[in-house]
Each structure stands twice: as C-alpha cells, then as structure tokens.
Design a protein that fits this description.
alpha/beta; four-stranded parallel beta sheet; 5 helices; binds FE2/S2 (inorganic) cluster
C-alpha cells in the first residue's frame, strides 16, 4: 500500500479515544475503586484528574477534540455534593454549551457528556465508561481525526 493511500484512510473504526475529565473527590476515586474491585470497562478512556469539574472550561473540551479525542466525558460529584459548591453545576452548563458548539461545527453533540457519581460508585464509573464507549463507538472516530482527501498531495 502506498504511503499516500494510508494517509487518506484515517483511523480504524474501532480506534476510539475518550478523554474523561474527572473530579478528584468523586469520579477519580470511583475509577480507582472500579480498578481495585476489578470492574470491567473499556480501555478507550484516558483519565485527566481535575480538583473539581468546575475547573473545566470550554477550551479544555475543544482542545481534547483537537488533539484527537473522539469523545469527552466530564465526571463530577453528585449534584448538591460538589466540594466547591457549584463547580459541577458550572461544568454541566459548559458541557451543554460544548454540545451546542460541537453541533454548530458539524460534530455530534453526544460526543461530550456529563456524568455524576460519588467516590463510592465504582460500579457507576464502569457503567458510565461503557455507555460513553458504546455511544462514541457507534459514531466512529471524530471527523477531526480523519485526514482530508487531498492531504499529503503536493
Ligand atoms: Fe467534585 Fe466539584 S468537587 S465536582
């Protein structure tokens, strides 16, 4: 196969990358618990720990897509349980804004989603990852990762 042909093929349909922005107090601890209890979930997720999902801004979500993510999960404390009061509610608004923005540039809004869980919910973490993986796998790799048809030609 010629190198130029390989460049135009893009990522394989099952080559999925999901970035999970996780609150230190809840989702990160839940992910840790899921690992300790050996709950099974897809390995397509890469965790980024935040002190609180309130730290997340829209630029972080967009940067993740620009750097090759096919989906973004934001996982924070249960509503009403954020250690910084409104952090997870602010994150929820940013996720909704992000979904609107993705739709406006032709990406499926379901590629970004907010989840809430407590630190004791290792099973919920595994379930959330399975849900997100299934959604993104159904959509396929992000169009931002697919090379343009004329890429690589002089
Ligand atoms: Fe967990 Fe704010 S401290 S979402």
């Amino acid at each position: 196969m010629l190198a130029d042909e390989m460049k135009t093929e893009g990522p394989a349909p099952d080559d999925i990358n999901i970035v999970a922005f996780c609150c230190h107090y809840c989702a990160y601890a839940a992910a840790d618990m899921a690992g300790s209890l050996r709950f099974q979930y897809p390995d397509s997720v890469k965790v980024v720990k935040l002190p609180c999902t309130g730290k997340l801004d829209l630029q972080l979500i967009l940067d993740a897509f620009e750097k090759g993510a096919d989906g973004v999960m934001v996982a924070g404390c249960m509503e009403g349980d954020c250690h910084y009061q409104q952090g997870n509610l602010n994150a929820k608004r940013r996720v909704v804004h992000g979904q609107t923005l993705l739709a406006s540039i032709g990406l499926e809004p379901e590629r970004v989603r907010m989840f809430n869980m407590s630190s004791a919910m290792g099973n919920r973490w595994a379930e959330a990852v399975r849900e997100m993986d299934a959604t993104v796998r159904k959509l396929g790799p992000s169009p931002l990762r697919r090379p343009k048809a004329n890429e690589g030609t002089p």
